[in-house]
Write a structure and sequence with these properties.
Elements lengths: L1 H42 L9 H18 L4 H29 L11 H5 L2 H6 L3 H20 L8 H20 L15 H7 L3 H8 L1 H14 L1 H5 L4 H10 L19 E7 L13 H7 L2 E4 L2 E2 L7 H11 L22 H6 L4 E6 L8 H8 L3 E4 L18 H4 L1 H8 L5 E6 L13 H9 L9 H25 L6 E7 L7 H4 L15 E5 L5 E3 L3 E2 L3 H8 L23 E2 L5 E2 L3 E4 L2 E4 L10 H24 L2 H7 L1
Parallel strand pairs: 1-6, 1-7, 2-9, 3-10, 4-5, 4-6
Antiparallel strand pairs: 2-8, 7-8, 11-12, 12-13, 13-14
Helix pairs in contact: 1-2, 1-3, 1-6, 2-3, 2-7, 3-6, 9-10, 12-23, 19-20
Amino acid sequence: MGCYINYIKLMVNKIIFLLKTLFEYLILAIPFILMDYFIRVEAEQIRFKVLEKYSYIYSCSFISFFVLSSKCLKGNIGKIYYSVLFIFHFLLYLTNIIFFSFTSTFFMFKIISFAGEGSHYMFDVILDMKFKTWRNVALIIFSFILAFFVFRKENKFNFHNLFVIFGLFILIQNMVKNLFAPIRNKRWNDFKRVSNIVNEFSNSNKCMKIVGFYKFVQTDFYNTYLNFDIFLGKESKEELEFLKKIYKDMKMHAENEYTGLFKDKNVIFVQLESMDIWLINKKNTPTLHSLKNNSLVFSDHYSYRIDRGQTFNSEFCVNTGFYTPLSITKNAYDFHRNTFNSLPKMFKKLGYTLKSFHFNYPEFYDRNINYFGWGYDKFLSLLKTNEYKKNINFAALDTELIKNKIFYDEIFNCKGKFLYYIITYSIHFPFRNARHSHYILQKKFGKKIPKNLEEGNIAMILAGETDEMVKLLIEGLKKHNLYNDTIIVFFADHCAQMNKKQLSKYKITNDQRINHTPFFIWSANMKETIVNKTNCQLDILPTILNLFGIPFQEKSMIGRDIFDNNNLGLVIFEDNSWIDGKILFNNGNITKLQNISDNEIDKNYISNKTQEVRDRLRQNDLTLKYNYLKYILINN
């Protein structure tokens, strides 16, 4: 009888030990489960339907590996290892939640290199976070503290179990990965296919939704820092054959009725930070409004938006005629060694003096390297003048671009023809709490700035600062007898960067029409001419070259001359959606932009146009990857 009692006690003790162990493992897993769950809740906002069973398998395997592997290590080593895993993923969780709340896209490691300018505003972005976000953060931290104290130290290393756990983890990863095998027969709608999205791994939102938080972090980290095939640009025969076919015919651009309209004029490009369509009006921006009434106005213009250095991406588009690549883990400034038929190089051949002006240090986005690489003679920075050491935020006022004596002399005391590229800043987000905006608001309200101002109203006031700069620029051109010999190209880098709910009061925000932005070309004594053809930032370079009568090879840039009769108008966005002026096509969904019937929407046209979009995006990325224009332009 005693043996049975002892046996029962032994079994009960084993069950209790097992339950305690399972309870401990569950407590250790909870912080990681919560992070994954809260990320999934955010991802529900993404308009992309996908079965999430694979992402659950990925997440369960990662969380199990984190917990079980930490229990195979002796003493405090296991506890430290567990804590490091948590801290690493918790910091990435915070980054993703903050980044997604402001940009509506999840964070990728390649964005780190563009963190400089945005870092100044991180505190303001954090203050605008919702209560539930901080509640979730508190829950995760509390669960980790609980797990830290529940964690029982092991008496020895268990390498056998560690190898078994690692082996099972790798096996599960590969099994799920095989379900995402690439599709060999390419189709026009591949951008909707889960396998294609996962293998390309360029769309952060869709990838996060498909594979889950932990697999997303692991894959993104590998692609950014460890995938040397991507980093070194390993050649692919199929990719090079694709480029060879694309660039087989390098014909010159044909002339049209607008060719040479501005031949031999001076030209100033003014890239307007966050200057949205609704911000240009007679009340808030009288100078821009007046100039627009004497311009070529491109009424259906869109900015190309990609959430890593949007301002510099616009500079890259306009100066090179190429997008920032999506399928390559590199940022725009990484291509400073590439060969382009760039804006400054094309004008340099005609003897133009080429300068760029901005308030910020040239090291931001490696502008110093890129602008010289593109062909500019100078990149001038207000902060480099050493006149703003006591208050660098004062340099962010756009009027300082003209008021500063050094800049004034560089702009207006130039001998011969010139091309200038001016980058404004005053409407930079966040409108309410940006340090430089304080001075602008004080100009209007004095020391007592109203606390109940809406974001849109503040944006209008900040836009007034940019408008005042433009007024000073025009006055300077008149004073130095440059007014009648100069044209000015005005365009926005992107739409107003503000809360979508607030922005929706002024424009459509629930699809790519949020990126509808101003673009117009002013010339003295010109009558307003409305150009309705759909276009984007990529089209600015070839259009300007045509207006100045500068010959160029059409395929040496992705954009098209807006006045080319063969160009029907097309804007391609980073998510493979597109607009042709009649419809917006996104992920298989059609939004009518004009009063057309369903019968007028040709399925073959949509299929062919979508394939054209894919081909042009691929041409863009592969041309940059292999620096293919270097060989094409030399041999032609």
